[in-house]
Amino acid sequence: MSNYYYLLTLFGCALVTWIPRVLPFVLTKAVSLPPTFEKFLSYLPMTILTALLLQSLLNFQTGYFPTLRLPEFFACIPALIVGIRTNDLMKIVLTGVFGIALLRLF
User: Which residues of 64-102 are buried (b: 16+ CB within 10 A; e: fewer)?
Assistant: First the structure.
């Protein structure tokens, strides 16, 4: 196979990935959404982040209840406190990274 085929495949994959991510923003600029739908959409980022957080805090095994990953849980506590006090994403991430690094060090 030629380099042209690989390049065409790469651009095709990029286009297929890019369109669903950009198209909703373009369409919502042209169309006015109802206020109830906008309120519903405002909860999506928080629910997605909560699902990601729970997935990283819980250990899942087939046939068993989820168990808590204690180092990640204890590193999450200071990050949560920093998040409530500052609302600064960079400080939250740095606190979580330093917290888990310190816990894994000991």
Answer: eeeeeeeebeebbeebeebbeeeeeeeebeebbeebbee
Q: How far apart are CA 20 and CA 87, in angstroms?
A: 30
**Token pair belonging to 102:** 């310190």
Helical pair 35-42 and 44-57, crossing angle rounded to 10 deg: 20
Global pTM value: 0.61
The domain spans of the chain are 1-31
pLDDT < 50 regions, the chain: none
